[in-house]
Specification:
Blueprint: H1 3-17, E1 29-37, E2 45-52, E3 55-60, H2 62-66, E4 74-77, E5 82-85, E6 87-88, H3 94-102, E7 104-105, H4 117-130, H5 132-138, E8 141-146, H6 159-163, E9 171-175, E10 180-183, H7 185-191, E11 203-207, E12 213-219, H8 220-230, H9 234-251, E13 254-262, H10 264-275, E14 282-287, H11 293-299, E15 308-310, E16 312-316, H12 351-364, E17 367-372, H13 375-392, E18 400-403, H14 409-417, E19 421-424, H15 428-431, H16 433-440, H17 442-445, H18 452-457, E20 463-464, H19 475-484, H20 501-506, H21 510-515, E21 533-536, E22 553-558, E23 561-565
Parallel strand pairs: 1-4, 6-13, 7-8, 8-9, 13-14, 14-15, 16-17, 17-18, 18-19, 19-20
Antiparallel strand pairs: 1-2, 2-3, 5-21, 9-10, 10-12, 11-12, 21-22, 22-23
Helix pairs in contact: 3-9, 4-5, 7-8, 9-10, 12-13
Length: 568
């Protein structure tokens, strides 16, 4: 090689080392033109992001990222709007969220218009008339989201109330907690529930003074009836729910959704909808370990099949705190309804069932997520986890506490010692904070529901969730509630449990990504990670925290593809 050629090679090599981009690094898209919050502590903000083949190849200053531009590179102008990593769902039920999206809206304001039993009946009747074709095909009427604590009568509707909607078709309405429901006379008949039907294990069939079922069903009594009625819809019905749920999650900026307490049928429906191109977000499924051990063992994986993967086990110990079915370690403060003195709720499963399920997951090295709302349920879970870890060792399965609404501070210490990741529910402070203060735990203990402050004092990561369809998968409501803890009445429930906006955003991005073993691909805007983004109307770190709930999700992007755009 002559000296000129040698100098040419050295010069080319030096230019590449100095930052000249080789052809394979040319970006498909460059995002710039607004604040970019990376959720990466090493580089919290950026001016621009370059993406190729659905992954991030550069993050930094605009001039730096411009080096990745090629002739075919597209520009995505943020126009002053704020970009963050796509939200990662810490806990919810995306398939049942599809049921919520397709059924009658029975939510109270601000998410719906039901304020009393008359308006509930009216909403159901109007929905049935508007959706006559669906009702005719399904041969049932379904409503979601009623909340007895928000009805003027402060009671559950009854079978007689729902018979006013229809006596010929089954009518089933689902409580906002998802742990209770009400069936009309036809639905009870089809489910085979009569005065002689015994309460199932872990559930209660409420009865009138004559011993007849009054239509209100708790926990496993409700789940049994719901399953029987939804089975009438067949696989196509579940597939429609899966697609509708995934679309709803994307609308609120979630690029990763969860199907907690899933089933083999729900996973099959998700995969079928995905194969048909109807699932645009990633969905992580956790089937019920009491019902699907063989299915879990055969399908659990860290890798996606399309947009769907089975990630581990789900287990449910107790029920709903606002519905007084969560298991406490003391009596409820002032429960509304016909409860015996000293009533403290109940467990949905036995300690033997719990220990067997936890042991099985540890033995097989499979992640387990456990629903435990009351202090009594957490006592059970802590004991089971300690026993499993003593027996099988501290396997890195990242066990998850779901909800933990009522926790003692010593239980937070125990969860930290056991390596448990808490997926908390601070949105409860808005929807049921006043109810908790007045009826479930009282004014002193209400301040410490969903104790994010206690968790951060111990330097623990945590996730925040909406538990949709318990509430809409409203990411900005989650963010607002975590930061402000404002109740419906405007009270601040537990000022010491509030966290700042950056912490609350981590609980919606990088921390739940870690929770689900996906921190290498999601949760921050970093080189090498998926180009999963959400674009908001304003910078949540720059606005008055009291206005966080007013921020809008404008665009959701999954692997460099726009999957939701407001107004379109």
């Amino acid at each position: 090689m002559n000296i000129c050629a040698h100098l040419t090679v050295l010069l080319a090599s030096g230019l590449m080392m100095a930052g000249t981009v080789v052809a394979q690094d040319v970006a498909d898209t460059i995002y710039s033109g607004g604040p970019i919050l990376t959720m990466n502590d090493a580089q919290p903000t950026a001016e621009a992001v370059a993406v190729k083949d659905g992954r991030i190849i550069a993050v930094g200053g605009l001039a730096e990222v411009e080096a990745y531009r090629g002739e075919a590179t597209d520009d995505f102008d943020l126009n002053g709007r704020t970009m963050l990593p796509g939200f990662v769902d810490s806990h919810s039920h995306v398939v049942m969220g599809g049921l919520q999206a397709l059924s009658a809206n029975l939510l109270a304001p601000p998410d719906g218009e039901v304020t009393d039993i008359a308006s509930l009946i009216s909403a159901l009747s109007a929905w049935a008339e508007k959706n006559a074709e669906w009702v005719d095909q399904a041969k049932m009427i379904v409503g979601f989201g009623y909340d007895n604590s928000q009805l003027a009568e402060l009671r559950h509707p009854t079978r007689e109330d729902l018979d006013k909607v229809s006596k010929d078709l089954p009518v089933l309405i689902i409580h906002q907690s998802g742990h209770l429901g009400v069936a009309n006379s036809k639905a009870l008949e089809l489910a085979g529930i009569t005065a002689s039907t015994k309460d199932p294990a872990g559930g209660i069939i409420r009865r009138d003074q004559n011993g007849e079922p009054n239509g209100v069903l708790e926990e496993y009594a409700f789940f049994d009836v719901l399953g029987k009625l939804l089975a009438r819809l067949g696989p196509e019905g579940l597939e429609a729910f899966a697609a509708a749920g995934a679309e709803l999650w994307a609308r609120y900026g979630y690029t990763t959704a969860q199907d907690g307490r899933s089933s083999a049928g729900a996973v099959d429906a998700l995969k079928a909808a995905d194969a048909a191109g109807k699932i645009k977000v990633d969905v992580i499924a956790y089937p019920d370990v009491l019902e699907a051990k063989d299915f879990i063992e055969a399908n659990v994986s860290r890798d996606y099949d399309g947009h769907v993967r089975v990630a581990g086990c789900k287990l449910t110990i107790d029920g709903s705190p606002q519905g007084f079915t969560a298991l406490r370690d003391r009596p409820y403060y002032d429960p509304v309804g016909d409860y015996p003195p000293g009533y403290a709720g109940y467990a949905s499963i036995s300690m033997e069932q719990l220990q067997d399920a936890v042991d099985w997951c540890y033995e097989h090295g499979i992640q387990i997520m456990v629903h435990a709302n009351g202090e009594g349920a957490s006592d059970m879970l802590i004991a089971a986890l300690k026993a499993a870890q003593d027996k099988y060792g501290r396997k890195d399965i990242r066990p998850v506490l779901i909800h933990g609404q009522f926790l003692r501070e010593d239980q937070v210490d125990s969860y930290k010692a056991l390596g448990v990741f808490p997926s908390l529910f601070p949105m409860h402070t808005f929807y049921w904070g006043d109810w908790h203060r007045e009826h479930t735990v009282g004014p002193v203990n209400a301040d410490n529901i969903s104790p994010t402050g206690w968790v951060r004092e111990r330097d623990m990561m945590f996730g925040t969730h909406h538990d949709a369809p318990v509430a809409l998968p409203d990411s900005m409501r989650v963010l607002s509630a975590t930061v402000t803890r404002r109740t419906r009445s405007g009270d601040i429930l537990g000022p010491s449990q509030r966290v700042d906006v950056p912490t609350a955003l981590k609980a919606m991005t990088i921390w739940p990504a870690w929770q689900q073993f996906e921190e290498d691909d999601k949760g921050t805007i970093e080189v090498g990670k998926l180009a999963d983004f959400v674009i908001l109307s304003d910078d949540p770190t720059a606005v008055d925290p009291e206005t966080l709930v007013d921020l809008k999700v404008l665009t959701t992007i999954k692997e460099d593809e726009v999957i939701y755009e407001a107004g379109k």
